[in-house]
């Protein structure tokens, strides 16, 4: 069994850290036979490079599963660097999103839709166009799920700024928070969108844990095939 290394962004918010650890505990409960560890690309420890080095030394192979909602710098640089550093021994799974599972959780977090005609999907923001495309795909999946228009806005960055998107949004608009956990971006979102209905972050959800394990399974199958 190949080790699973879950990697999250990291946050100084204690509530955010609790959510990430609970999500990983859910993964462990759903798959007790999988060796599982958690590392971070920023803020928290263990840092991803040192964790991967330790795991590979102990068990030879690992699949890194980003607990990230879209693919940007941390996937294409930080995670990819570990694959390059340990060729044939470390394998990378894609980010969690886009995926219909995330659209389902987002819809649930929005709650009662009877008073909502329009939704703004609020994401952290990225300078990587591939991450922006991932968010656009998620918006389309959510729109299909809730049968309402969904626009994408970013809490930081120059692309589709949240305040600009909200300024032209119609009445009865709600904000779907496309963040994993409380932290800097969630606090900034609430400061920049006063008076709006804002859903909570995705949080530690069993469906999210199952999605992360599916990402692991898909890569593990390919890794075993390549090793034959």
TrEMBL record:
A GO MF label: metal ion binding
SUPFAM superfamilies: Chelatase
Keywords tagged on the record: Lyase, Metal-binding
Domain of life: Bacteria
Record-linked InterPro entries: CbiX-like, Sirohydro_Cobaltochel/CbiX
Keyword Chaperone found: no
Identification of the protein by name: Sirohydrochlorin chelatase
């Amino acid at each position: 069994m190949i080790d699973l290394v879950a990697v999250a962004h990291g946050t100084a918010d204690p509530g955010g850290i609790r959510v990430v650890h609970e999500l990983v505990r859910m993964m462990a409960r759903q798959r007790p036979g999988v060796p599982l560890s958690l590392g971070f690309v920023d803020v928290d420890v263990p840092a991803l490079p040192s964790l991967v080095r330790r795991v590979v030394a102990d068990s030879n192979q690992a699949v890194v599963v980003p607990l990230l909602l879209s693919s940007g710098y941390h996937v294409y640089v930080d995670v990819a660097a570990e694959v390059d550093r340990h060729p044939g021994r470390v394998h990378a799974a894609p980010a969690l999103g886009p995926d219909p599972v995330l659209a389902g959780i987002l819809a649930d977090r929005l709650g009662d839709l009877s008073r909502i005609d329009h939704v703004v999907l609020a994401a952290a923001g990225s300078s990587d166009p591939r991450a922006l495309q991932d968010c656009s795909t998620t918006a389309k999946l959510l729109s299909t799920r809730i049968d309402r228009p969904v626009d994408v806005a970013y809490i930081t960055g120059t692309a589709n700024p949240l305040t600009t998107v909200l300024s032209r949004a119609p009445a009865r608009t709600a904000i779907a928070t496309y963040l994993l956990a409380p932290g800097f971006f969630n606090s900034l979102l609430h400061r920049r969108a006063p008076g709006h209905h804002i859903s909570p972050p995705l949080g530690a959800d069993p469906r999210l844990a199952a999605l992360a394990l599916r990402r692991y399974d898909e890569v593990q199958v390919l890794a075993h095939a390549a090793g034959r």
